[in-house]
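Objective 1.3, modelling of assemblies. Example input:
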Amino acid sequence: RKEVEQDPGPFNVPEGATVAFNCTYSNSASQSFFWYRQDCRKEPKLLMSVYSSGNEDGRFTAQLNRASQYISLLIRDSKLSDSATYLCVVRSQGNLIFGKGTKLSVKP
Amino acid sequence: GAGVSQTPSNKVTEKGKYVELRCDPISGHTALYWYRQSLGQGPEFLIYFQGTGAADDSGLPNDRFFAVRPEGSVSTLKIQRTERGDSAVYLCASSLGGLDTEAFFGQGTRLTVV
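Predicted structure (tokens):
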């Protein structure tokens, strides 16, 4: 079983749609959690950290369920500029492990 | 700029040759990570340094791969006897090393083995 698993997609949605991505991780001792965004042929960049209490940044909401070892990202009112690959990232013992990413394509 | 710098940006080498890929992290960042990314895949972990020492090298695929960070700053990823399957984008990232700290990536080195 891979350490961090994501649905690879692609998710093709119209502008204005709400889309949710899910991620599971296998190491129960994992310490911190993140969502990164990667545009085509670019390096990954931090989108947001994920906390147990849940956190929101504008149209983006991240949730963590430690008991189920599950992380989610919700994007509301999708924009064309949200088209990218979203990477679920887990930190364990200092190391950062990435999922394979979920590709999102927002269409006009 | 003060970001993570990787050189070269592109490298084409012949099968069987030796290559070195360099990473200059953000000044003051104690943690440094190397990843390999193939098309359509997420970054695959290779090795993680905390300071000068390799804290976790479990991702190195075999003994042809080796990485160093002798002074706790610049790191070099070394690949011996390159194979066509080594072709990928090699990404380096650095962070302050705390649990919640952001990792910043360089733009990567695209390695092509012909």
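The radius of gyration of chain B is 13 Å.
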